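User: quick one, fold this
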Amino acid sequence: MISLIKLLNTSILLLLLAPFGADFGVRLTGYQLNKPTRLTLLLVALINFRHKLVYYAQSLLDLLFGISPDLSKSPKIKEIYVHPVKSLRGDSVKEWEIDEHGLKCDRMYTLGIFRDGKFKAITQRECPKMALVYCDIDKENKRFNYSWDFGNGPGSFTLPMEPDVASIDSKEPVELWGVDFETFVLPDMIPSKFFEDLGMDKDTQLLYSPKGKAVRTNAPRFNNQYRFSLFQDYYPLLMVSDMDIDDLNDRIKVKGGNLVCNARNFRPNIVLEKVGKLFDTDNWCKFAVYTKDGKSHQWSVTSKCPRCPIPNINTETGVNDNKSIVSRVLSSYRRVDFGSVYDSFFGMSCVQHDYNYTISVGDAVVVKSRRINHYECIG
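Assistant:
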């Protein structure tokens, strides 16, 4: 009976506080449900409906009166990361192209092992030292230069931005987070020393995906077509806020942890600055990036990003924190999504509305609409 009364009181508060923000009521009451009830889902629908009305009303006013956003007060792109090979270290760039898969060339390759009739991607979960294989993007010569040195002599290899697969007769099946698609196997492009130094299985192969997989779960369609991503876990782009990373480091320090996180721990594509408040991006729905040419390009936030153990890896040593301090701290305050109540969330997954343009460090990011986002299992 007490739990029922608490639920009803919280529900009324959520409804009354809805006009103040997508998650204002939830944060103020501090009440968390183990699983969403029908009443919870109804309240979320009502709040999201209100936010949709606000979005349409604001869009109409902007159109009628020519109102432009104040870009000087908007969040900005602080860092851009491209990871040509999944789970190897990415490269920080000042500007980069957006194509139909997200950031051009991002996760176009992965390392994989053939098991149970299909390839499975190898990541830092299985091999933390992958974090120490450095990437240098050579745009002029259209190649990615990789290097490493684990104390037994340096090694290196180069991969092309546009691999020639015309001579490869067939594609092979690959699975990534339960999603099956097709890939090319590119033999002999990485020296055996690489696999030996990282302690990988001798049958590990380099895989290349020119098309990837359809992004259907919790994602918008454009002209009745879904976007496709390559070897990204699922969605084309991952975005985090520097303020949220700083807050996490403060919490780790309070807990006595020695690991200091940076953006690379979370392997995002975009790091934002000047967001304004902690985890404000949790409830973004649509946002626009204002590029240097004066145009704006819209993106949709699909969901918060559930975190695996990879952020526990020290990006400077390639050693996994034996106390899993990042995961433990995140679990204390970031189990915030009723779509998966036992996962910790950090960062936002996004889908681009259009493509064939360039984003740059310093570009303004303007929130166009908000909603209470929730995670849906991929599939």
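User: anything notable?
Assistant: The mean pLDDT is 90.
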